[in-house]
Amino acid sequence: MEPQSVSITTEYIKLEALLKLANLVSSGGEAKCLIQDGQVSVNGQVCRMRGKKLRPGDRVAFAGRELTVQ
Length: 70
What we know:
The protein contains 2 helices and 7 strands. By secondary structure, it is α+β, with helices and mostly antiparallel strands. The chain is globular, with a radius of gyration of 11 Å.
């Protein structure tokens, strides 16, 4: 599957905010649970830090979808 690009206008975006911005979750609470359950990976590594700062070039995988921060 082709990665979906998500554009940000700041230096970074937090992981939970990226999942909400990309409409992969409906709330911050849902994002928190999924991240803490180890269902999200960042640059190929499982990430359990919902406040993880993502910068352009970072790749996030969740539920069979892949996002690239632009």
